[in-house]
Amino acid sequence: MRYFLFSSFVFMVVFSGCASKLSPTSQDDTFATTLQEQTKQFERFSHEENFDELLMLFRENCKAPQTQKVYAKVCEQSLHVKDAKAFFQNAFVLKKVEPNEQRSMLTGYYEPLLHGSMKKSKRFAYPVYGKPKDLIKIVGEKDAKMRGRSVKGKVVPYFTRAEIAKRKMKAEILCYVDDKIDLFFMEVQGSGRVELEDGRVMFIGYADSNGHTYKSLGREMVNRGIFATPEEVSMQKIKAWLEAHPTKRDELLNTNPSYVFFRKMEQKATGSLGVVLTPERSVAVDRAFIPLGSLLALKSESPQYKVEKFVFAQDTGGAIKGPNRADMFMGYGERAKWVAGELQAPLEVWIMEPKF
């Protein structure tokens, strides 16, 4: 009986299924085309890639709990890899992130250096606030985190930037700095370093915000006719204009009601993922579209900066909205400051989805 069944099976395969195997179906063609495209895309990002470095960074990225949710099995496999390039090629599928009505754009941020003191003086007049004791965080629908304060048993919005400037805050003052504009930009960057009078350096990181929606100062200056187009705007140009028009400074800064509170850090710039940021490898994304911890491939080119490489989604930002929107961490120093301040470039994004 077993022989008869086996013979019948061979007969069906040879005479019934042979034609379909020798003549590829549309599904076969589609699969082959997709495989070719995947290989082509991967090689496109591989030309100047250091896969050993990428593997080391991937393992560090995997230490974050949120990364484990995205890449649990792949993270485990990464610990036993001998051929780094083969690992990334075989463990992931490149999936194009399609844009929506929001602008597809790559910008940059960096770790700024401010000058400060532990004591307030005529020079060091601007406080760097820790998280206020009266700031309340409420989790609403779809896990949206709202901030406020309690007034006679009712929760009301927390103070705006303009209101904070006029109040004695119920918050620790980490230090005082000598430049209000630089302090504003440190809020935008989300972290920084403060060199104190005695030579010590204090690492500062994001602690929380007042919950108000971030509004772009550059866009406001375009709306007022200070700059002709968004492409003309840069951090350096904004600061130069504000320094040249000191009577307009506070009014313009206060058009952004959002305010960031900081905390002392034991390490340099750290993103929302809880991982120390790596220059030109870490990006801030909109987590509504891209999960934190994801491995991405970016392609962007402008007169200031060109990138075609693999990076990690390790941070977020109030101005980063949309699926094809990323903010590249440039690091520390003058080059990082210049590139971050000038960078505005079209962007394409691919997310590396695990095959298993």
UniProtKB/TrEMBL annotation:
Record's keyword terms, sorted: Cell wall biogenesis/degradation, Lyase, Signal
One Pfam match: 3D
CDD domains: mlta_B, mltA_like_LT_A
GO-annotated biological processes: cell wall organization; peptidoglycan catabolic process; peptidoglycan turnover
Reaction equation(s) it catalyzes: Exolytic cleavage of the (1->4)-beta-glycosidic linkage between N-acetylmuramic acid (MurNAc) and N-acetylglucosamine (GlcNAc) residues in peptidoglycan, from either the reducing or the non-reducing ends of the peptidoglycan chains, with concomitant formation of a 1,6-anhydrobond in the MurNAc residue
Gene3D superfamilies in alphabetical order: Barwin-like endoglucanases, RlpA-like domain
Region forming the signal peptide: 1-19
Principal EC category: lyase
EC number: 4.2.2.n1
PROSITE patterns (alphabetical): PROKAR_LIPOPROTEIN (PS51257)
Domain Lytic transglycosylase MltA: 113-263
A GO molecular function held by the record: hydrolase activity, hydrolyzing O-glycosyl compounds
GO cellular component, one term: outer membrane
Cited SUPFAM superfamilies: Barwin-like endoglucanases
Protein name: peptidoglycan lytic exotransglycosylase
Species per Swiss-Prot/TrEMBL record: Sulfurospirillum deleyianum (strain ATCC 51133 / DSM 6946 / 5175)
